[in-house]
Amino acid sequence: MAAFFVGGYTSALNLSRDRVLNHDVDKAKALLEENFPAYQKEAQDNIKEALDKLYGGAEVSLQQLSATFRRGDLLNFLDGF
Asked: Which is more confident, 45 or 23?
């Protein structure tokens, strides 16, 4: 489900992020499998752009990157995508 959140793909399911429930998983899985290459590319591009904005284009160490994911900074930032 994280790929849907990162790429904003819950809209493809006609669901808001807080409304993805267990009974939506099969539909989400089928949609993800059908469109995976496009979703993956867009999600990667969004993550790269967000990291560039968060860190001002500076080199990011693995420790910084780990902390960014652990704290949820990146997901909060991606909400705007």
From this structure: 45
